[in-house]
Amino acid sequence: MTSTPKYLKRFLPLLSLYIYFSSKSFAIGEIPLNWRRANIYALFKKGKRTDPANHRPVSLTSQVSKLLERLVLPELLAFCNDYQIVSSPQHGFRSGCSCMTNLMDCFNDWTTSFDHIGTSIDIIYTDFKKAFNSVPYQRLEYKLTQYGITGNLHHWLTSFLTNRMQRTACGGKQSSWTQVTYIRSTSTHHNHDNRTNPLPGLC
Predict the structure, then answer these.
(1) pTM of the entire predicted model
(2) Are 41 and 170 in contact (CB under 8 A)?
(3) Where are the alpha helices (H) located in the chain, listed in sequence order?
(4) CA 110, 116, 122 angle in degrees (round to 5)?
(5) N-terminal to C-terminal alpha carbon distance within the chain
(6) Which value, in Å, is the radius of gyration of the alpha carbons in the chain?
């Protein structure tokens, strides 16, 4: 079933069925397979259009699935904030925070250090290539459990990460469906492994 905004608007009476399936999905902790499918489009960045390296892949998933994400995300963030799971230095993916607030905090720390004679500052800039694609989903599962997110919600979230399918779409043509493969964790001990945190203090 195609779940695009145009489809939802045209078949508004069927939304009650979507609400029913969504409620059922939460109740059993399982996301329908069709909602885990994604069409991959190549978004042109710059340079020669004939060079694949000048395109960025964009994954378009079910609109219904995205709607459920919008419902769950505020609750998860509120839970993390209430129990101080999200660390204060975390500026990415937080409401009211951005690169600008991150730089302001850094600048404040630097100027404060400069005010103290003899204090040196070492600044290291890092950039992780394809960071989100390099995190084994089992570690994200582990983090959810450690932060007290269990039960059907835990099953529902991990269900979203498993048995996913994708295909490439271009010029009205689509490839065949292919199962998404993940990097598997090689260790079962994650307590002090900061590399498991693509979003420090959040995941």
Answers:
(1) 0.68
(2) yes
(3) 5-10, 15-28, 63-82, 99-114, 137-146, 151-161
(4) 40
(5) 31
(6) 21
Nearest to 142 by CA among 185, 83, 91, 78: 185
User: If you count them, how many residues does the chain have?
Assistant: 203
Cα 75 to Cα 122: distance, rounded to the nearest angstrom? 38
- Token output for 71: 């419902």
Question: Contact, 90 vs 201, CB < 8 A?
Answer: yes
Please give the Cα distance from 55 to 130 (Å, whole number). Answer: 14
Instruction: Convert the pLDDT of each residue in 74-120 to its tens digit.
Output: 888 889 888 888 888 888 878 888 889 998 998 888 888 888 766 77
CA dihedral 8, 33, 68, 147 (to 10 degrees): -170
